[in-house]
Amino acid sequence: MKPAAFTYHRARSVSGAVGLLAELGDDAKVIAGGQSLVAMMNFRLARPEHLIDIARIPGLDTIVREGDALRVGALVTHHAVETADLGPDFRVLSEAMRWVGHLPIRTRGTVGGSIAHADATAEWCLLAVLLDARIVVEGPAGRRSIPAEEFFQGVFTTALEPDELIVEVEFPRPAPRATLTEFAERQGDFAIVAAAVDPDAPRVVLGGVAQVPLRVPAAEAVLAAGVAVAEVGEAAAAAIDVRDEPGASAHYRRALTRTLVTRACEEARTR
Amino acid sequence: MTREPRFDRTGRWVGASVPRREDPRLLAGRGRFVDDIALPRMLHAQFVRSTIAHGRIVAVDLGEVRAVPGVVAAFTAADLALGDITALLDRPPHEFVPTAMPVLALEKVRYVGEPVAIVVATDPYAAEDGVEAAVVEYEDLDPVVTDTAALADGAPLVHAEAPRNTLVDVSLFATEGIDDVFAQAPCVVRVRTKTGRQNALPLETRGVVAAWDDRDEQLHVQTNTQVPHQVRTVLAGCVGLHEKQVRVTVPDMGGGFGQKCVVGREEIATAAAALRLRRPVKWIEDRRDALTAAFLAREQRYDVRAAFDAEGRILGLDADVVCDMGAYSCYPFTAGIEPLMASAEMPSVYQVPAYRVRGRAVTTNKAPTAPYRGVSRPQYVMVVERLMERAARELGIDPVEIRRRNLITVFPYTGVNRITYDPGSYRESLDLCEQVLHDEGWYDVRARAVREGRVIGIGYSCFSERTGYGSGAFAQRKMQVVPGFDISEIRMDVSGTVSVTTGTMSHGQSHETTMAQIVADRLGLDIARIKIVQGDTDRITYGWGSFASRSITIGGSAVAAASGKLGEQLREIAAHLLDADVDATELDGDGGVRLRDDPARRLSFAELADVAYLRAHLLPKGIGPGLTASASFDVAGDGTFSNATHGVVVELDPGTGGVQILRYVCVEDCGVAIHPQVVEGQCRGGIAQGIAGALFEQVTYDDAGQPLAPSLMEYKVPTAAEIPDVAIHHLETPCAFTANGAKGAGEGGTIGAPAAVLNAVNDALRDTGVELDDTPIARETVHRALESALENAHV
Fold this sequence. Notes:
By secondary structure, chain A is α+β, with helices and mostly antiparallel strands. Chain A contains eleven helices and 14 strands. The mean pLDDT of chain A is about 95.
């Protein structure tokens, strides 16, 4: 469990990092908190020849409220969000952080890193889709902003170009009633199923049931209708396409979806 | 009955939770573990490991490996030509098939992760680069991945010499007429269960630093083993050195739990490489290897029937036990460790009049097994406790009451398994445990739950645990290497402070504190003036290390006896110097000897030591210079049994199948607790590992024998978030034949937890018609049980 040899680069600025990415191409990986990448490197499942460390680039670790929007820098840690006072509008972000790994992971792992890694059960990926976030990235041609739903394309696959760096995640609208819940055997594990709802949008987003964080329009429609929350869960369970896998059958994933969506809706209604 | 303690309770040390002497260094990060050791010119080893579960080795090409920058050497089995590691039982061929475990695989590989070659490099990264460059050509053989596949007709053979892949097949007991007992019994219940393969998973993985010392003409091996002398013996044999040329020492250890009480192939290969290269070599097992290629345990299949009379009294037990021991027999215990433990002790805490058992160890293409805290007892206790609950349900008897009717209450009790149980508090611990759960209101919570839409159950387990297996007990297992006794040597130096050896080996159990407490009371000397020496084959005559909850019972007794002898010597010298009769003297409890009738006349140990060493001409006739004593202790009979009852309250989540432990109560009796806080730590840690087995951990493989849990993401060790606070209540039935009245306390927690948790879950499922017997309990299974009950209710 030791990584293969690599060359380490410390980027001092976003443009510096982008320049290195452009220069080194596919052989390079960006490292911030390293909570997913280093484990993969230790197993030699990932063996980048170059690591570009962005952890000390100034200005990427701030959380800024601008009008309705909340802009979260790519280097903000999960723990910083967990302990930040985001007010009622974005409380779901702080609350959801308790589901992210364990405290040591949360003190190092970053928002940008989690979204770039694009695990389909990761809380940040669900939250981004739930709240219609825009992923702000910078490349050689400058900045562009990608809607979360377009950003996540498949298992560990995103719309990020190899020479682009995530600099910020912008949450455009308040979501005072949004909630996220999930189920795993152990606290801190990747969820078997995770569910996030925002009754005001309305949005129902699931993790663990597809290759990307999955919006469930059928359930959103039921949620919008304002009927019993159990029906939202039922609609979500009926809408997903899951298969039997070791550790969880399709039937079980469906049942968890029903339960968790219902519970997330119940929690939202109390707000 | 009256219990007459034969131990000295007048001392002030035994029984006190004094600050642990290990804590200052460990809590400040100043401990020294194997990986903290760095020697000049030290190299780092890693292993080329089999990537397939079963195959013939066609060729091992290390040419590229040796070309990797930083790699200093790479050796195959043929290069090192080491002797095999072979553990034996004195049993006939139809009961036991000996198999050799080569240090490095030579002709065949038998599990994914089996070491094939050792790569030695200037740093651990280069060593892994070297491992990656190895080219091993295999001829694939069909893998044997489960116990049922191993026993199937025409199954491929893991070891050619072991037909039906069976290493041990022993029928220890078969009460005459037992078939009639079952035929005529009013109630027969049956439990068939499969328990998951587990990893003892010490926080500190295995590791070793080995170096040849030209001046001492000695191979010094610093390794985190529970059994230093056994490592010395095997290593000397494998590399062809005299035992005097091998010194095994053990630094601080971060747990062992049995995984380190057997001799590991990697520690031998690393030492052999150091010997060959004449340079220090370090090997630290990484977590992936620890999870996939270290010694595992606990994968067992039971088919057990129990016969009861109409009043719920057990009439007979008929058991078939198959243990999946993986690819090799471990040294010194052999693959018999699990089936023989289960066979010998399954009747547990109950009065079982008739008993039949067949115990088998089968070999499969999975990492080999070793003892793991509890050894089979977590499993058979679970089976027996399930049988009790099932019979209670069939007969309409309260599950606690049916246990009361069957518990052994008159001691000593000689069971159908020919073991004599010394006094314990079997009945008292059950009564107290039930009382505590009643008093805390959990039965009310359970009663209210139904109308509140909650699913809550209460479960118990009653068990005893043989601790302090002496030579006689192990000899009954027919081990060829028979552990049991312990030897202690004590030496007082010229200043009056003492150092005491123990052949036991603390791998986290605080022996430096607890053994010193025993010495302190025996000599009347502050523990600050006592040093405990362990884990050094050059300083300790011989020891069996620590396993089977033997340290305080046996090691502690030896330490007490040696201390007592030294005390006698001190009194003899003092009597001479004070011109008194020896009988007129006594240890004064404060580091001196005084006259019983004239306490002012006193000589301190320092004054006595001064005479013993520096003014030997003043010594009495017949007493030579120096202050040393030696004593040994062995258990004459069947050992001593600790006991406990665990009571658990669980809540199930019908929406997810989630299992939450609301309350955990442990009522334990380990005799005299030398250090109650240490005992409680042992209970809590053990219970956590038992809960892990019941609800979380499992080593899994795919059909090809590839490990599916190579990291802690897949191997679900519970964390502080999953393990509840445990309420511990103590009862004390002193052991009559250990020096301190103590019984062992190392394993009980692990033994009781799976049964109690499983029973609680089943109690919660009582209205569903579903009973779960397998562990770990899958959340999906719980969910399905509750879901189908809900559906049936709606129909």
